[in-house]
Amino acid sequence: MKLVGFLKQHDPLVSSAQDLTELRTRCQIQGDELVSMIKYLVLAPSVWDWLSDWFDENGIAIGGASYCTDGEWIWPVYFPYYLNKYRDIYVDEAFLEHCRKNNYILNTISEERMQVLVNSFSQDVLGIGKPPVITRKKKLPRPIMRRRDDLSSSG
């Protein structure tokens, strides 16, 4: 799992997150390739969603707080937003080569691979661990299935 497009403004706890102003000085793609990149990023499936929204520096809604993946890389939903808005955002060279190699076509991600990505991303990036596995310490008694009272009369 590799990360790309994380910004300190939105994800300050992600160690690889960068400042938006620093990324705006080194654009290396443009034109049709930039359009292909934005489509690639937008069409990818979500690997994690929060019940909140992101807003840009002007208070304009970017969209839901989600993270997307192509099965190898993970990026926040705001990454294509900023690429489209400013068109001079630096894109990680390794990610750019990965997209070019795939001709900007997303491959299908298996359910098993998606689960691995969800677990890795939530634990390693977001710091959300799995809940502990709960096991029984002792065998519980069987529940009473039927109650029968024996009545007797004397007399």
State the share of residues found in helices, binned by percent: 25-40%
> How do the helices and strands follow one another from N- to C-terminus?
EHHEEEHHH
Rg result: 25 Å
Largest sheet: 4 strands, mixed
Number of strands: 4
Distance between the termini: 83 Å
* Main structural class: alpha+beta
Strand order of the largest sheet: 1-4-3-2
- Taken as a percent bin, the fraction of beta residues is 15-25%
Uncertain parts = none
Number of helices: 5
User: From the structure provided, what is the oligomeric state, counting identical versus distinct chains?
Assistant: single chain
Overall mean pLDDT stands at 85
Tell me the overall shape: globular
Number of folding domains? 1
Description:
The protein has 155 residues and is α+β, with helices and mostly antiparallel strands. The protein has one domain. It is 32% helix and 16% strand. It contains five helices and four strands. The chain has a four-stranded mixed beta sheet, with helices on both faces. A hairpin with a 3-residue loop joins β3 and β4. The chain starts with a strand and ends in a 30-residue tail after the last helix. The model has no long low-confidence stretch (mean pLDDT 85).
Summarize it:
The protein has 155 residues and is α+β, with helices and mostly antiparallel strands. Helix content is 32%, strand content 16%. It has one domain (2-125).
Q: What are the SSEs and their pairings?
A:
Elements lengths: L1 E2 L16 H4 L7 H13 L2 E10 L5 E9 L3 E4 L1 H9 L6 H9 L9 H15 L30
Parallel strand pairs: 1-4
Antiparallel strand pairs: 2-3, 3-4
Helix pairs in contact: 2-3
